[in-house]
Amino acid sequence: MTIGSITPAPASFPDIHRFEVAADGLGRYDILVGLPARYDQSDRRYPVVYVTDGQLLFWDSFGAIRFQSLGAGPAAIVVAVGYPPDEGLSGWFARRNFDFTPGPWDMTDELGQLLVQHLDSIKAAEGRSDAMMRAGGADRFLAFLRDDLDPAIRATYRVDDSKPALVGDSSGGCFVLHTVFSGASPFDKYVCVSPTSSLANGAVLRMAESYLSANRNLAARLFLCAGSEEMKTREASLMGFVSSVTRLTELLMRVGYPSLELESQIMDGESHLSIFPRAVMQGLLHVFGKSSRAARTTG
After folding, report:
1. Which of 27, 49, 59, 225 could form a disulfide with 265 if both were Cys (CB 3.0 to 4.6 A apart)?
2. What CATH number is given to the structural domain containing 176?
3. What is the mean pLDDT of residues 177-200?
4. Phi, psi angle pair for 18, to nearest 5°
5. What's the distance, Cα to Cα, between the start and end of the chain in Å?
6. For position 1, what pLDDT does the model report?
7. Which range of residues forms the domain containing residue 110?
8. DSSP secondary structure letters along 139-194
9. Contact between 163 and 189 (Cβ < 8 Å)
10. pLDDT tens string 228-251
11. Residue 5 — pLDDT band, cuts 50, 70, 90?
12. Cis status, amide bond into 102, omega within 30 of 0
């Protein structure tokens, strides 16, 4: 058989919706919503999974949920929160640093200056100068997810009564930890991949230690991971990917919260750019109660 000429056309996915929202003081967000198979053919309600860095992480997350819904895990609605394409790579890089980072942080330390230099390089490559590096917006971004976006999603889609899940990678992983220990989280399921714990001079680790000293329980399912290759360069060591996972695991296991379901992994052979597909697959299995390798805390 000989294939003739091919005429490509844009693909249309009826189970994937897209819209833009604006948040006061934060800016515009590009939202992708992935619906379960045959969503329109029933009146069933579904759990919801929120994913940071939406335009990067949506497809792996949606694919993992779809595949697991064949029998390994529940069907769920995936809501990926990203940034408008017209803001460019520089807009994405600058805005996520603000949204995901606790504050205050003047970014004059070595890590802060490294991130500023990365942004300058991206702006030069794109030929734009509008993006500015800031930090300290994690509380405001959490409030946007909790008070604005989640109610709107629940009013629009058939979401069940369970608390949602939150997925984040790298600086987004730092935001996941910030949310866990904020005392103001609407979530109870967390997939935290390669958290950049050194942001804001390690503020999220101090936040965790403060929470652990003041609270007698943490009702959550938490998946923590980093890759074994994420500690083998100077830049990666500045980020604290692996050390944050091991440190938090030790602290949580020592406290022994009775209502915490914790799984922690250092994934062999995975780098910062390779880890997410494997991590989100295993992480979602754990937070929805299907993992066979859960390391459970005991009270």
Report:
1. 225
2. 3.40.50.1820
3. 97
4. -140, 135
5. 66
6. 64
7. 16-296
8. HHHHHIIIIIIHHHHHHHS-B-SSPPEEEEETHHHHHHHHHHTSS--S-SEEEEES
9. yes
10. 999 999 998 999 999 999 999 999
11. confident
12. no
Instruction: Say how far apart CA 48 and CA 213 lie, in whole Å.
Output: 31
Q: Is 265 helix (H, G, I), strand (E, B) or coil?
A: strand
18 and 32 Cβ atoms separated by less than 8 Å: yes
Q: Is 9 among the domain residues?
A: no
Q: What is the DSSP code (8-state) at residue 95?
A: H
Reported as a single tens digit per residue, the pLDDT across 12-29 is: 889 999 999 999 999 999
pLDDT of amino acid 297: 39
Residue found by looking up tokens 């802060």 in the block? 112
Judge whether 180 lies within some domain.
Answer: yes
Q: In which residue are the tokens 């529940």 written?
A: 74
Question: Taking 70 as the threshold, does the pLDDT of residue 291 lie above it?
Answer: no
Count of domains for the chain: 1
42-94 residue pLDDT tens: 999 999 999 999 999 999 999 999 999 999 999 999 999 999 999 999 999 99
In a domain, 2, yes or no: no
Tokens of 186: 């609407």
Answer for the pair 35, 15: CB distance below 8 angstroms, yes or no. yes
CB atoms within 10 A of CB 146: 17
Compute the mean pLDDT over every residue in the chain, rounded to the nearest whole number: 94
Residue 218 lies in a domain: yes
* CA atoms of 287 and 291, how far apart (whole Å): 8
User: Whole-angstrom Cα distance, residue 72 to residue 92?
Assistant: 33
Residue partners of 297: CB distance under 8 A and separation at least 6: 252, 253, 255, 256, 257, 258, 260, 261, 262
DSSP annotation of 241 reads: H
pTM reported for the whole predicted model: 0.94
Report yes or no: 297 and 77 within 8 Å, Cβ to Cβ: no
Alpha-helical regions (H) of the chain = 54-68, 88-100, 110-126, 138-143, 150-156, 171-180, 199-214, 234-239, 241-255, 275-287
